[in-house]
Design the sequence.
């Protein structure tokens, strides 16, 4: 996982304050750099839970937005935080496992320790 330091928001307030090189943080991508010409707010981290390693980005247009990021915006964020050769996924969980704390926030997940199963290339 990469962390685009040019977009790191070092002091958004506790608990999100970070410094250059931290493997987590909040990142603000200005509208003029984003594909949809809208400000993107990304909270990103590497972490271990239950002995499984997951890279994670939550992507929104800010705390007051009622609109989620577009496909193009999510692709842009994916390529900012991971190599173009790496896969990241958005999960659509079973209804019984569904949690939606922020309706206009989408998430990207990547586990560098496992080979993620992929559908046939012609279906992607």
Sequence:
């Amino acid at each position: 996982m990469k962390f685009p330091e040019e977009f790191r928001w070092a002091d958004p307030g506790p608990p999100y304050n970070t410094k250059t090189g931290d493997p987590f943080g909040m990142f603000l991508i200005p509208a003029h750099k984003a594909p949809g010409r809208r400000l993107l707010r990304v909270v990103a981290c590497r972490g271990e839970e239950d002995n499984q390693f997951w890279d994670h980005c939550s992507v929104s247009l800010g705390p007051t937005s009622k609109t989620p990021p577009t496909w193009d915006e999510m692709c842009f964020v994916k390529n900012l935080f991971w190599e173009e050769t790496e896969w990241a996924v958005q999960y659509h969980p079973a209804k019984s496992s569904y949690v939606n704390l922020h309706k206009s926030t989408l998430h990207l997940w990547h586990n560098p320790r496992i080979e993620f199963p992929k559908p046939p290339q012609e279906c992607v």
